[in-house]
Write a structure and sequence with these properties.
Length: 161
């Protein structure tokens, strides 16, 4: 079998958006019967929450949508840029952080804004819900991630990316 494709989902803290994106993508590839062809993880730009479980609102959103999740926050490393094929950021700030953190020279990973794969509204960012009251922002993040993960997988399967 050919080597696995590798996708890494990034956000600022790795406790809200990127765990949801990771869980949604795991479900997307499982539903499509291609889970064994992928290695998937998520990570943070910052180190504040390393080792922690996701925010309780992210966990309840995942639970509500029957998405199992058992990962803990970690910070992105330089090695990730050569290990992964695709590194997804959630907003423009994530993308500039990634650009600054990437090792100099050519690295393997394509740095992509997840929202660019949104089948309804391409190019939208996935807003940071951490400082918002309640769980609405988390639900919105989930809904966007579903559309984006479907859009991304379809592009991979058409050989467009
Ligand atoms: P996330 O949300 O990037 O979607 O995980 C955040 C979580 C924590 C912080 C910021 C954003 N923080 O500053 O601690």
């Amino acid at each position: 079998m050919s080597e696995k494709k590798r996708a890494l989902f990034i956000c600022l803290g790795n406790i809200c958006r990127s765990p949801i994106a990771e869980a949604v993508f795991l479900k997307t590839i499982a539903d499509d019967g291609v889970a064994e062809q992928w290695e998937v993880d998520s990570a943070a730009i910052g180190d504040w929450h390393v080792g922690n479980r996701p925010d309780h609102r992210a966990l309840s959103t995942m639970e509500k949508h029957s998405l199992p999740y058992d990962n803990r926050a970690r910070q992105i490393t330089k090695a990730d840029f050569d290990h992964y094929d695709y590194i997804f950021g959630m907003d423009k700030e994530n993308m500039s952080h990634l650009k600054r953190m990437a090792p100099s020279g050519v690295s393997k990973a394509k740095q992509l804004l997840l929202g660019d794969f949104d089948t309804d509204a391409p190019g939208k960012i996935i807003r940071d819900p951490y400082y918002e009251q309640g769980a609405n922002g988390f639900e919105q993040c989930y809904v966007q991630c579903v559309r984006c993960c479907n859009g991304f997988l379809a592009k991979v399967q058409r050989g467009e990316i």
